[in-house]
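#struct-pred
JK: can someone run the complex with iron/sulfur cluster? inputs below
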Amino acid sequence: MSIRLKREVLTADVLIIGGGTAGCFAALTLSENSELKVIIAEKAGIRRSGCLAAGVNAINAYITEGQTAEDYVDYAMKDAAGIAREDLLLSAARRFNKVTADLERLGLVILKDEKGNYVTRGKRNIKINGENIKPILADAVLQAPNVTVLEHVTITDLLIDNNEVKGAVGFHMEEHIAYEIQAPAVIVSTGGAAGLYKPNNPGFSRHKMWYPPFNTGAGYAMGMKAGAEMTSFEMRFIALRCKDTIAPTGTIAQGVRAKQVNSKGEVYEEKYGITTSERVYGTVRENHLGNGPCYLHTEGIDKGTEEDLLKAYLNMAPSQTLKWLQNDRTPGKEDVEIAGTEPYIVGGHTASGYWINTNRETTVKGLYAAGDVAGGCPQKYVTGALAEGEIAALDIIKKGRGVEITDQTSFVADEKIREYESILNSTEAFFSAEELEEAMQKVMDEYAGGISTNYQFNEKQLMLGEEKIVEITELTKDLNASDMHELMFVYELKERLIVCRSVIAHLGFRKETRWHSFQENLDFPGPDEKYRKFVNSTLKDGTFILKLRDIGKEIRYEHTDF
Amino acid sequence: MSIRISKEACVGCLACTRVCPGSLIKEKDGKAVIKYPRDCWGCASCVKACRFGAIDFYLGADMGGNGTVMNVSAEGAVLLWKITRPGGAVRIIEVNGKNSNKY
Ligand SMILES: Cc1cc2nc3c(=O)[nH]c(=O)nc-3n(C[C@H](O)[C@H](O)[C@H](O)COP(=O)(O)OP(=O)(O)OC[C@H]3O[C@@H](n4cnc5c(N)ncnc54)[C@H](O)[C@@H]3O)c2cc1C
Ligand code: SF4
Ligand code: SF4
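RT: done, structure tokens with the ligand placed:
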């Protein structure tokens, strides 16, 4: 008997897609400041979903004493080699400290000195216990008036009419239910995209990556399909991480002030520069020159410091502590080996994502983006995601959009739900989603600057990569799914493939090398002033249309001219 | 990277199934099972959610794992992380949730 999905039509004033950092905070802001009816659709359980699941190690974006929001903007602009939006950075930075105070009120533990001031780590960080940061946020959301949380509901598509958002459509990943959620305002906060490239651990531990493997770029893909303008998908993020566990290194580098050294014990970090991309590049170069492996020099730290490191990692990346303790190779005894990760697309670290205005509205009316899915505002991290969630929510309240809902299943949603059913009922597939995912990751690795090519590529490779990704996309038409979880795998793959095509198109359009490793085009090995601009794109009739957009303080970033 | 769930220790409360950010743990015959062991991110959310010590967390062989396992129990705000080596040697690390990281 063929599977039919039960259809549920829900209505809300505001739909939030993704109950992570930005999504939760947007919901709290809406609940505190309005009577608007809010639905959060979250693909997992909200208490530990998204980037914050295991905990985080610090508040990475904070305006410490003696610093200003403008200083933060300067720093982020320089680190991005000029490709970032000052208006977005400034509006986020002005809220970093406010949202931190909100988190503390909700229960986040922050380290203080005897005078009661926060203890800083470098110029922009403060020290916390981030183990329970997600349960803290989620519990507040679960108690907030007017907020309904739908867990295990994955959204695949936006409902759009005449460049205006009307809601979204998705399905329950355990039960045979499809959802159409109608709302005149929608905040996308699904995070960035992992799993595009062949990962550091391609075998059994393939998901032991830095970015959550469950953030698959859904928000980017649904925006592209809806015709929203996107920016900077060529500015990939490659993290420098502890080898094997892919655990963050900031706690060791900034906390213990450990230097990057090569296998000869030479400190190499200053040699290549200290921007985020240069630190990765330096490590790649040292390995290439035969000076690898590279390490963070921790040998000789005292017992007390070592003990504190073991605990700090349990609060955010417990696999690293397990790695140290399983055969007693603790950081005081041995330097910590480091490696570059596979490239991710993540707007919390670099500038990739939706092209938005200062209120975080996208080029689609009523559609907002916040957190890692939103572009133009790199280095925003946890506090930036919270700030963007808040800014979007406040703008929605200010605009006071009326509810104009129909309660009738729309034609577009109906078509989508039939598509879900046909995948569930199909038996024809030659390949599985898993096989095609591996094929995609291999293509991206070899032709679009993955780990195996030291993150470099040339135009010919990109062209071949594009061809192959299109071929794999064709094969997804026959995929089938035997249950709702597998149906989700099928959509995750489709989302990633669209994002891959965008990444390739953007990488090719920037005919220079703006950042080592992040976007290193061997046909154009140096920077070119002509490209001190944003590369933006929209998907039209299946093709990415690319263009350059100017950068500068004097420019007002409105959407009218696209 | 993955987890193992002990059939004997699991009481079927299903707390772990609700917190996994990848929804990888499912109910089968009244017990929790990890349906997609290769998809585990290693976040330890399930290990923390299980109050019956039924879930062990380990490093895959491809990450240099040697069979050492880790689990965690809570006493108020204090998390007790227990690391058990293949020979049976145990080390416990106490982390007080009320204290901030020093680094
Ligand atoms: C391991 C790690 C450590 C970090 N450490 C720090 C740190 O120490 N300090 C710091 O300041 N920053 C840190 N960051 C960065 C920071 O955590 C992120 O930038 C920020 O949390 C992103 O928030 P977000 O809301 O955009 O994404 P998330 O919090 O990941 O939320 C996205 C949510 O969307 C859901 N979702 C995805 N797709 C769908 C779909 N199709 N339908 C429905 N729901 C969906 C996901 O399940 C998830 O809950 C870290 C990031 C990572 C990954
Ligand atoms: S939380 Fe523990 S006891 Fe409960 S179902 Fe999961 S494994 Fe079993
Ligand atoms: S460790 Fe995290 S990802 Fe792995 S099964 Fe447990 S909750 Fe899921």
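RT: quick notes.
Chain B has one domain: 2-96.
Residues 2-96 of chain B form a domain with the Alpha-Beta Plaits fold (CATH 3.30.70.20).
JK: thanks, will look after standup
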